[in-house]
Design a protein that fits this description.
about 5% helix; 8-stranded antiparallel barrel; mainly beta; 1 helix
Length: about 250
């Protein structure tokens, strides 16, 4: 999915090339539009946890750790603008991007049973938004700086693994894997600027902050690897956030 979205964005930019030299006279931003985008994103995944440091449950512990993330994003958008006589432009837009945004941490802990290694990998598979937009046409109507905000949704995959060559019963090898895949919802806010290349074609630079809220990565019945060691009966949350910078190309009908 991600590869096809990137290819679509690249083809759209190439096909539109001949139109870039057209004059920007007679610009009217009112109407529907569709487009493609490509960019880069990053942020953090937060993991608050609670449990015990021993299998017998005699040493309760809680805390949190954070994981940095980054990756390429790409996809498409569609929307509608209405330009008022005073140059104010109001609109609504929906977009969806496949993303390569991910983060990973590796951990090592040593106990009387042996030394274990493990870690957490988190992937933001896709991200979509539905947003309102408010801008103002400047420089003869060619440039429209805007602010935007609204609803965000996406899918977050988490894998936490533990491996120890001698931590199992009787000194046997032991391993554990906890995997979750959640469709998440939240909010987004940002801003950018559209630049008219012709009466129908425009390019864009945009920044968005997306917060997909708090979810659950482990429900209290699992063993989980953390920077301080393995946690038994782990109850682990997940807070997913991302900063996105995208360039885009839109065609107005």
């Amino acid at each position: 999915m991600l590869r096809s979205l990137f290819l679509t964005a690249a083809v759209g930019l190439c096909v539109a090339g001949p139109a870039l030299a057209q004059p920007a006279s007679g610009i009217n931003w009112t109407g529907p539009y569709v487009g493609v985008n490509l960019g880069y994103g990053g942020g953090s995944f937060g993991y608050p946890f609670s449990g015990t440091t021993d299998a017998a449950g005699t040493n309760p512990v809680d805390g949190a750790y954070h994981q940095r993330s980054s990756g390429i994003i790409g996809g498409g958008q569609a929307g509608y603008n209405f330009e008022m006589p005073n140059g104010v432009i109001a609109g609504i837009e929906a977009d969806i991007d496949g993303t390569g945004i991910h983060g990973a941490n590796g951990f090592t802990s040593t106990t009387a049973a042996g030394t274990s290694t493990g870690g957490t990998r988190t992937d933001l598979d896709y991200l979509g938004t539905v947003r309102g937009r408010l801008g103002y046409a400047m420089f003869g109507g060619r440039v429209v700086p805007y602010v935007t905000g609204g609803f965000a949704y996406g899918q977050v995959d988490t894998n936490n693994s533990i491996n120890c060559p001698a931590c199992g019963t009787g000194g046997a090898a032991y391993s554990n894997l906890v995997s979750t895949s959640d469709d998440r919802t939240g909010w987004t806010v940002g801003g950018g600027a559209d630049y008219a290349l012709s009466p129908h074609l425009s390019m864009r630079l945009e920044y968005l902050y997306a917060d997909l809220g708090h979810g659950t990565a482990a429900d209290g019945a699992n063993e989980w690897a953390t920077p301080g060691g393995d946690i038994y009966g782990a109850d682990v949350g997940l807070h997913a956030k991302a900063n996105l910078v995208r360039i885009g190309l839109n065609y107005r009908f």
